[in-house]
Design a protein that fits this description.
Elements lengths: L7 H12 L3 E6 L2 H4 L12 E2 L2 E2 H4 L2 H6 L1 H17 L4 H12 L2 E6 L5 H4 L7 E3 L2 E8 L7 E2 L28 H13 L34 E5 L8 H12 L6 E5 L10 H8 L3 E6 L17 E4 L2 H8 L2
Parallel strand pairs: 1-4, 1-9, 4-5, 9-10, 10-11
Antiparallel strand pairs: 2-3, 6-7, 6-8
Helix pairs in contact: 6-11
The protein binds ligand BV8.
């Protein structure tokens, strides 16, 4: 990860503008949760068991192979449940508390912002949550939220390694390092890493998957916005209301996102049209909304890990 360098002049000018800002919008992506140990969407090349994550995150994939898609989401639920919010999540919570006109737009479905105590009135989950479920039958409106059952059904249990006896007294430092990392991630040490296609994973038939308790025959699916699906209309309305009520948006924060997915990425331009100065926080200078030429005069680019930079910026 690139060294985190904060240019003091940029830091000062950013903080002086933030101090007098009434209306602040923050667009967040997977980079916000990277320091919590969760892979980004395009991390590991965006591949999960030789499948492109963007392909698995579609209604077509669920229709074709609900067992595989549920393994994908059960794995991400398990990882997210084992992860902890990082300093960037908490700094956003604090800024939201301080600023009356503040709204976080998160593309993340990992539940770390609410676990950090983010004011629910000042955050919009553009792409849903791993811990919401809904019925996949088009005629059924069953929904449930905050379902933290892990695994969701026994058939989705993540297989465990059979711990290899290490010849007595030779437990090297690497085991200790792995053990402490796994402890940090809260994953039990012998979870097999099913994101790797070489790790055997049993096929799960539809009758072993969670079914809708209301209509009785629909399969339950993750309460997630898949590619090709419309974002929740009430969420879009509430974001538009925040923008419409803002005579001016002072700052648009773009935190740990490749800003390549729409309509989420479109809010950067909308904020600009409302006079916002854009502050991009990203480890990768190439990942700026609209690319290299996406930056305008008066914008800021802070290169480095969000969990280090964000607390510094909001001081
Ligand atoms: C790929 C893209 C071009 N496609 C789209 O945008 C599509 C199609 C489309 C619509 N409008 C368009 C306009 C132009 C082009 C295409 C479209 N959009 C849709 O399909 C949307 C729905 C999009 C939502 C899809 N669901 C997700 N997530 C839930 C699933 C799941 O999670 O499984 S999107 C998902 O991918 C995106 C991933 O982006 P990031 O979070 O930014 O992650 P990424 O890995 O890419 O980048 C990480 C960044 O962090 C940085 N980083 C890494 N570590 C750190 C660190 N430590 N610190 C700081 N930064 C860091 C990295 O450098 C990098 O920049 C997020 O949005 C994430 O939520 N729906 C829709 O348009 O419906 C229409 C419609 C209209 C009417 C009726 C019916 C339908």
């Amino acid at each position: 990860m690139a060294a985190t360098t904060i240019n003091s002049a940029d830091l000062e000018s950013f903080q002086s503008v933030l101090r007098y800002s009434d209306r602040v919008l923050a667009l967040c992506g997977a980079g916000l949760s990277a320091a919590s140990g969760l892979p980004t969407f395009r991390g590991a090349g965006g591949i999960w068991r030789s499948h492109a994550a963007v392909q698995l995150a579609t209604p077509e994939a669920f229709r074709e192979n609900p067992g595989l898609v549920w393994h994908f989401y059960n794995y991400r639920r398990h990882m997210a449940l084992g992860a902890k919010p990082n300093a960037a999540h908490y700094a956003l919570v604090e800024l939201a508390r301080r600023k009356k006109g503040f709204l976080t737009l998160t593309q993340n479905v990992d539940g770390l912002s609410p676990r950090a105590g983010h004011d629910a009135r000042k955050i919009k989950y553009l792409h849903g949550s791993l811990f919401d479920l809904k019925c996949s039958a088009f005629f059924c409106d069953y929904k449930e939220t905050n379902n933290y059952v892990d695994p969701l059904v026994p058939a989705l249990e993540i297989p465990k390694e059979v711990p290899q006896p290490t010849p007595s007294g030779t437990a090297g430092s690497s085991e200790a390092a792995t053990a402490s990392l796994e402890k940090a991630l809260g994953i039990t040490s012998n979870d097999m890493d099913i994101s790797k296609s070489e790790v055997p994973l049993r096929d799960v038939s539809a009758d072993e998957l969670p079914h809708c308790p209301k209509c009785g025959n629909g399969l339950l699916r993750p309460g997630i916005v898949w590619f090709g699906e419309q974002l929740p209309s009430d969420t879009l309305k509430e974001v538009d209301k925040f923008v419409a009520e803002s005579p001016k948006i002072d700052i648009m924060l773009v935190i740990g996102t490749s800003a390549a997915v729409y309509p989420a990425a479109g809010y950067v331009a909308i904020a600009r049209d409302k006079g916002a100065r854009v502050a991009v926080i990203n480890v990768d200078r190439n990942d700026i909304p609209g690319g290299q030429y996406g930056m305008c005069r008066g914008d800021w680019f802070f290169q480095g890990d969000a969990s280090t930079i964000i607390p510094e910026l909001f001081k």
